[in-house]
Design goal:
Layout: H1 2-52
Length: about 70
C-alpha cells in the first residue's frame, strides 16, 4: 500500500511538472515573439534615422540631451 501511495504522489508531481513546463514554454514563446517584434522595430528606426540623415554619420553620443 505504501508503494502505491508513493507512485501516486510521483504521478501527481510529474503532472504538475509537465504543466509547469508547458507554462514556461508558452512564456518563452511569447517573449521570443516580443523580442522579434522589438528587433524589427529597432531595425526600422535605424533605417528611418539613416534615411533622415543621408551623408551625415551622426553618433547618438554626439547628441546632448535637452537639459544640457
Amino acid at each position: 500500500m505504501d508503494a502505491e501511495r508513493r507512485i501516486e504522489d510521483l504521478e501527481v508531481r510529474l503532472l504538475e511538472a509537465e504543466d509547469l513546463l508547458d507554462t514556461l514554454n508558452t512564456t518563452v514563446f511569447r517573449q521570443q515573439q516580443q523580442i522579434d517584434l522589438l528587433q524589427e522595430q529597432l531595425r526600422m528606426l535605424r533605417q528611418q534615422f539613416n534615411d533622415a540623415t543621408p551623408g551625415e554619420q551622426l553618433s547618438l553620443r554626439d547628441e546632448l540631451p535637452p537639459h544640457y
